[in-house]
Amino acid sequence: MSNPSPRKPPTWTVLDALQWTAGYFDTHGIDSPRLTAEILLAAVMETTRIDLYMRHDQPLAGEELAAFREMIRRRVRREPVAYILGEKEFLGRSFTITPDVLIPRPETEHLVEAALERLPEDDGGSRKILDLGTGSGAIVVCLAAQRPGNRYFAVDRSPAALQVARKNAAVQGVARFIHFFAGSWLSPVNADCAGFDMIVSNPPYIPSARFGDLQPEVGQYEPRMALDGADDGLFAISQIVCKAQDYLLAGGFLLMEIGWDQKSAVENLCLEAGGYAPAEFVRDYGGHDRVAILQKKPVPALDVLECS
């Protein structure tokens, strides 16, 4: 199918293509070679993985084979499947994905779920929620879809990423609930328009020195500015923790995805900021502390002097 040339049958059937591609991926160190082959071929044939096996003896048309070959070449170069397909599923929803945005990951689902737990459903109130570094918009779109009665604001410094986020919001039918702004973290937010009930973010948190250890799919293809947290990985996190307290209502929440080993550092940042209750943490599927939950302290009640 591609160099090195296999000993191929006269006509490629679905099963021929899957078997050869799975072996080719395996020899090139691609994770889940059979699954990857199924996903790519199903996309080419505009069908499901299960249906591939119902049509296992169907010959591939010339244009299908050509498209599949190109996908194989891209994957062997370690390009992520999400970029090859241009989409990624997140919490049961399909999101458009381009190399301008970070690929949504299962770890971030915990952030969305923790946010939803703290957003009452259908209580008649309209809350203000801010998503910092929105990227593909996966977080804010899922929140708006599940809690449509609120007002949502999303910020990203990449105009290209905002274009992707707007498209995803439109496709998911929640564009009317979300206001998008270009800028770095809280800089586009007017202090007079503060008073958020919740701020969410998946900021860059990988230390710069660790980039050489990342898988090629991440280090070579995903946008570095969405991953690189500077020397200790805490540059963006520390900025957000310090400033978010000035934009939250008393009792409001700041939820952030963090690195697996950053719990203690985030606890210290929370204490230094002074405006939060002790931080809570949610663990990911691997048992790592992955989501930090900071709640702004309530305004202390004033003592009232009663006169008789």
Automatic annotation (TrEMBL):
Reactions listed under catalytic activity: L-glutaminyl-[peptide chain release factor] + S-adenosyl-L-methionine = N(5)-methyl-L-glutaminyl-[peptide chain release factor] + S-adenosyl-L-homocysteine + H(+)
Listed CDD domains: AdoMet_MTases
PROSITE patterns per record: N6_MTASE (PS00092)
UniProt-listed InterPro entries: DNA_methylase_N6_adenine_CS (IPR002052), HemK-like (IPR004556), N5-glutamine_MTase (IPR050320), PrmC_N (IPR040758), RF_methyltr_PrmC (IPR019874), SAM-dependent_MTases_sf (IPR029063), Small_mtfrase_dom (IPR007848)
Annotated family: Belongs to the protein N5-glutamine methyltransferase family. PrmC subfamily.
Xref: HAMAP family: RF_methyltr_PrmC
Protein name, UniProt field: Release factor glutamine methyltransferase
